[in-house]
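Deliverable D5.2: sample structural annotation.
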Amino acid sequence: MQLAPGVKPARASWRLHIGSRPQMPGRHRGRTVADVTSESSPPDGNVAVPAIPASAGALIFDRSGRLLILKPTYKSGWTIPGGVMEADGETPWQACRREVREECGIDLRHGRLACVDFRRPRPGSPGGIRFLFDCGTVDDACLAAITVQAAEISEYRLAAMPEALQLLRRPIRRRVRAATAGRALVYLEQGRRVAGVGKRRGK
């Protein structure tokens, strides 16, 4: 499931550690890179790298273009299939496939990276990177055989896009809206497009 603000009850660790320190460093103002790295470096002299939470989600549609959405048991609102990457070298696509299989029993074979969203940390939320894959249309037989992970998912629904966008939690809603607006990969920060990113110069 998506990271903010709830944490999956089944996960002992939900943060992908990149480097040797587990905590997310704060933002530093008016200081050089050398200042920050010298203070955060371990005693052996190796430079510590930020630990960045990462998760991956899936856009799954039926033949009518309705989106598969899930209602989690551990937080309010609706979300899409997906969840946190394991800190064992799992890739975003592997995490997407595993989480979808665990949450609703669908074995994804194809996907297109549609959106990357960077979320800044704030009190109560670790922020991180969200990868969103467009996994296209799933056949009726597969959808009819959906089995949700009862400990984490209370129900599922296939919703037309206007309804889905209304039901989805706000950060996910922004991501889904951006990802379904076209075929190009979309880069977001805090769920919003970034000026100068995504368009070729002169376009």
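Annotation notes: The chain has a mean pLDDT of 82. The longest strand covers residues 128-137.
The annotation will be released with the project's public dataset once the embargo ends.
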